[in-house]
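Something for you to look into today, if you have time. Could you write out one complete protein record for me, on any chain you like? Leave the record below and I will have a look.
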Amino acid sequence: MKFGAVPVETALGTVLAHSLVAGKRIPKGTVLQETHLQALVDAGFETVVVAQLDQDDVAEDVAATKLAESMLIGIEGVRATSAGAGRVNLYAESCGMIRINAAIVQQVNSIDPMITVATVPDYHRVDAHGMVATIKIIAYAVPSSALAEATKVARGAVSLRRPVFETATLIETTIGDIPSDKGQRAMAGRVERMGMVLTERVLVPHKPDPLAQAIRSAPGDMIFVLTASATSDVMDVAPQALRDAGGQVERFGMPVDPGNLLFLGEIGGKPVIGLPGCARSPALNGADWVLERVICGSEVTHADIAAMGVGGLLKEIPTRPMPREKGL
C-alpha cells in the first residue's frame, strides 16, 4: 500500500486518508469516485492525501470481515457485526462466560501490526448482547499474505460458555435474630443475570445438624451456604455440615480479597459453594469468580483458584475493623 499526497485528478479509486469538506463532507476511508474528484476540484483542492492499494492488498473492511469469520468457525453463541472503518465487533448472543485463548490472540496480533484483535479478559461474565471482542485493521488495507496467515490461526480465539444450571438454593444460617434479606437479594441478582432463578429462602440455626439437613433437602441445581458467622476453618460449622450431609469439601480459602473465606464442595453431583460474608453485597468479590465458572459448567480446580491471586486484590474496604495499613 502506498500512502501520501497525489494530484486530485489521479486519485480515482484511491482511499481518502482524511475527511474533507468539498461542498459536503467526504469521510475518510471513502473510495474516491469521479463525483468526489469533481467536488474536490470545484472546492479548490489540487492534491489529496490517499492510500493506494497494491494488487495483493486486501481492503480494511474485507480483511476485518474475513478475520472475524475465521475466529467464529465452529463457535456458537457469538455473532459478528458488519464491517465499518476496518472494524468488526463480536457480541455474545446470550449471557454466559467468555473464554479467551490468549495464545491464539497473541499469535494473530503478532503477524502484522495492522491486524489487531482486542478482547475482554478470559472468564469474563457477559450479558446477552455484550461485546466480547473487536477486530480492527489499523491501516486501510493489509497484505493478503498477512491476512491469510491470521485467518489460518484465528479459529477458536473466542468462545462462549452458557449456563448449565437453572436453579440455585441459598441456605442462610442464623444466630439470634433473623437476618435481613440483603444476602438473598444480592445472590438473586447474581444468578438472575446468568439466566437462573433462586428458590425459596432457607433459614436454619447456625449448627451442623440443621444445616446438614437443609443441604440434603435443597431443591436447587446448585447450593449456596451463607453463614451468620464467618467460616474460619475447614472444620467449621458449614464445611462440617456439608460432610455430615454426605457431601465433600474440595477447597477452603482463596487468594482473592474480598472473598478469602469461600469453600467449594459438592453433594450428589450438585455444586455447593460456601459463600464469604462479602457475598451479601452485590459488589464484585471472589465468590463471583467461582460461581460464574461453576454455573457455566467449568471445573474449578485447586490450580484455578490459586491462579486467581494475580489480580485478586479487588478493593480495599475502608470500614474494615482491621485495615491492612494503620491510618487507612
